[in-house]
Amino acid sequence: MSEAASAEVDRRFRRHFVRLWLGQVASGVGDQLHHVALIWIAVEAVGERAGWVVAAGAITRLVCGLAGGVYADRWDRQRTLVGCDLLGAAGVATLVFADTDDPFILFHLAAVSAWLGMLDSLFQPALQASLPAIAPDAPRLQAANAWLDVTRRLALTLGPTATGLLLAWMPLRMFFALDAATFAVSAVFIASLGRRYTWKPPQSEAAARGAGLFEEIAAAARLVAGDRRLVIALAQHVVWNFTLGAALTLGIAMIVNGEELGGPALLGYATGAYGVGNVASNVFLARRPVRNTSRVLHLGAFVAALGWLIVAAVTHVPLWLTAIAFSAIGGPMTDLMLLRLIQGGYPPDQIGKVFSFRFTLSRAAGGLGLMVAPAVYGAFGPRAGITLGAVILASVALFGLLGASRRDRDAA
User: Fold this and answer.
1) Of 327, 149, 135, which is closest to residue 240 (Cα–Cα)?
2) Is the predicted pLDDT of residue 168 greater than 90, yes or no?
3) Residue 130 contacts residue 77 (beta carbons within 8 Å)
4) Could you tell me if 44 and 192 are in contact, meaning their C-beta atoms sit under 8 angstroms apart?
5) Rounded CA gap, 141 and 16, in Å?
6) Given CA atoms 400, 404, 408, 412 in this order, what sign does their dihedral have?
7) Interaxial angle between packed helices 51-74 and 213-225, expressed in degrees from 0 to 180 and rounded to the nearest 10
8) Residue 210: which region, alpha, beta or left (left: phi > 0; alpha: psi -120 to 50)?
9) Percent of the chain with pLDDT over 90
């Protein structure tokens, strides 16, 4: 390819990816505003039963995860993404006029949460399977994954932070209207990419002969089982989510509260420190080529485990916050390399299904970890519980690093 042609490819990729990225920025912040409003209204309306509202979304993501990957590979992905956004906007909009005194408000909130969970189970595999078509080569694909990942992580911080400012201008229920609007913005940006990309992959052999849903899932499972690198990476992903998935949300809060280190403000600083580490890691990976995907993936898990061991050991607050930021560096290293294994190692008609395995396994392991963590942290203390999880993850990461030999070096 000539230099001029290469420059034109790069300009087109940047122009189109920025549209996709802007849509996901808006949607990510809107989702966080929606989450704050949903939880607050649910707690005010039904008290401790508000947990069922969150659980409804988690359950549908778990139940529909594998099916979402199948349909993401069968259907036109651009139309799937736009349709999910528009259906999500319609579902959220029903909450703008909901009556919080209605005895059925719990069911309404849970139904919307479940509806969004189902749509997300289809949207995420379709989005990840679309990126290889939009990014013209491996370095740009790695950069696209990194910027989308940093968007998700920034939204976790910026969305809740914006609530205080927005509440001075609008009632809480209007957060749902904002979220519905951001869904629509995302749909417009995705639609604006046009039809120049291969949005619908060629039919797989199983789909062409009319294979059923479970048959396609089983075929994808056999495909994954034959890939040693991906099996080890997914196993590590499960261990990470199970052992340390609750560390940031529950363990850190218990340490701050139990040891009276600094109150709610310090909890906010801890969350911010984790975000800083995530963003720094993403920015670095977006600009640096990777030769050995498996090695970076397992090194990321080891860095995270080492960081959490320090978090569990130190009490000096500045050092403690630094350790939290250090542990966060490992997250993007593992997540982005896992996406790279999936997007670069499978044909276009299988990427959605393979990604859905990762999506479903992480949800299941994280949910199970959140169920187990309170008992472990309560019995042994949060520092001991985090230490145990970090030791287990470090052991699995070292096993992976030993297996990430020169044979695993990526093809140029």
Assistant:
1) 327
2) no
3) yes
4) no
5) 13
6) positive
7) 90
8) left
9) 39
Rounded to the nearest 5 degrees, what angle is found at the Cα of 165, between the Cα atoms of 273 and 318?
20
What sign does the dihedral 90-92-97-101 (CA atoms) show? positive
- For residue 93, the one-letter residue type is A
pLDDT at residue 411 is higher than 80: no
Q: Which one, of 195, 171, 81, 175, lies nearest residue 128 by Cα?
A: 81
What is the separation, in whole angstroms, between the first and last Cα of the chain?
16
Amino acid making up residue 151: T
pLDDT in tens, 355-383: 999 989 988 898 888 788 888 888 999 99
Integer angstrom CA distances of residue 166 from 160, 161, 185, 226, 268: 10, 10, 19, 50, 19
Q: Is pLDDT above 90 for 398?
A: yes
Look up residue 171 and give its two tokens. Answer: 């009632």
Mean pLDDT value of segment 267-283 = 84
Give me the amino acid identity at 147: W
- Ordered by where they begin, the domains of the chain are 1-201 (1.20.1250.20), 209-402 (1.20.1250.20)
Kindly report the average pLDDT of the chain as a whole number: 85
Residue with tokens 């560390």: 247
If pLDDT is split at 50, 70 and 90, which confidence band does 320 have?
Answer: very high
The pLDDT, as a whole number, for residue 79 is: 94
Rg of the chain in Å (alpha carbons): 21
